[in-house]
Amino acid sequence: MPNFLLMMADDMGYGDVSLLGNRSLPTPNIDRIGHDGLILSQHLTAASVCTPSRSAFLTGRYPIRNGMTAKGKNRVFLFVASSG
């Protein structure tokens, strides 16, 4: 059975690891994982900030369906309970 590794990081872009083009910051361990496996690079995120994006990934629902919407001008969330 194959292993499956998903890496989620805040504000990480496609070219932020050296395997995908970054020459200013070496990432040899991430590069080794990428060379030994399969890189899936055609994905989108449900939101531009951390909490709603992660809630969408973990639940399979859009952030607004999980109660992960911004109140006022704030774009960063504290974890909140929602009826989901």
TrEMBL record:
Cofactor dependency: Ca(2+)
Domain of life according to the entry: Eukaryota
Keywords annotated in UniProt: Calcium, Hydrolase, Metal-binding
InterPro entries: Alkaline_phosphatase_core_sf (IPR017850), Sulfatase (IPR050738), Sulfatase_CS (IPR024607), Sulfatase_N (IPR000917)
GO terms for MF: arylsulfatase activity; metal ion binding
Stretches of the chain forming a coiled coil according to its record: none
Pfam families: Sulfatase (PF00884)
Hydrolase listed as a keyword: yes
Residue ranges occupied by any Sulfatase N-terminal domain in the UniProt entry: 2-71
Database matches in PANTHER family: ARYLSULFATASE FAMILY MEMBER, SULFATASE N-TERMINAL DOMAIN-CONTAINING PROTEIN
Entry's family note: Belongs to the sulfatase family.
Protein name: Sulfatase N-terminal domain-containing protein
Gene source species: Euroglyphus maynei
